[in-house]
Amino acid sequence: MSAASVEQPHGDRPLIAEANRIRDSLPGHRVEIIGGQILVSPAPDGPHGEVLTDLMLPFLSAGLHGTETRIIQCFGVWLPTGAEDHAIPDMAVVDADYRDHCIESGCHDPAVVRLILEVTSSNYQTDLRTKVAAYGEAKIPVYVIVDRKHQRLHVLTEPTADGYASHQVHAPGQTVTLPDSIGAKVSLDVAAILEAGRPKAD
C-alpha cells in the first residue's frame, strides 16, 4: 500500500499521538511514521487485496506459515529511522516467536522479519523510494514490491544503511525465485501477480 498524503505534527504533540488521532478520525486508513513524517494511506482497492491473497498462496504452499515462520498481513515494524518511526507493510514473513519481540504500539523488532512485501497504490513512490531506504536501514533481508503502476515486480536484497545493494526488476513473463533466507523456496509468476492487481478498465 502507498501513502496518499503526508501530514505534519501539530504544535508540540508527539508524532505517535498525532498519528493515533488521525487513525481514529479516518477509519480504514493506514497510518505510519517514516523519516519523522506521518504517512496516511487510504483503504486498499479490491485488486490490491486480490494480489495479496494470490501472493499468500505460494508462501503457504511452501510451509512458511508453520512452526518456524509466520505469514502476517499488516505487520507492525519498528524502524531505526526516527524515534517514533514505524511501518505497517502489506505482508511480512516473520520468525514464529515474533510475539516475544514487540517493542511498542503493536510494532516489532525488525530483526524478526525475513521478508516484507508491499503492493503499490496511489503514491507508488513511497514504496519505491521512502520505504526502500527505511527497510534497508532496518536490515530487512528481502523487500518485494508489486509495482502496479509500471507493471513490474521488484526484489531487493542485501540491505545497506540507505537502501539495498541488490535491486532486481522483473517483468511479466518471468518467474522469480525468492532467496532461501526466507525459510523455504518460493517462486512467483510475475504476469499472474500483476494481472490480479490490475484495476478494471474504464
UniProtKB/TrEMBL annotation:
All copies of domain Putative restriction endonuclease, residue ranges: 27-191
Domain of life of the organism encoding this protein: Bacteria
GO MF annotation: an example: endonuclease activity
Pfam families: Uma2
UniProt keyword annotations, A-Z: Endonuclease, Hydrolase, Nuclease
Record has Nuclease as a keyword: yes
Listed InterPro entries: Nuclease_put_TT1808, Restrct_endonuc-II-like, Uma2
Name of the protein this chain belongs to: Uma2 family endonuclease
Species this protein is from: Streptomyces typhae
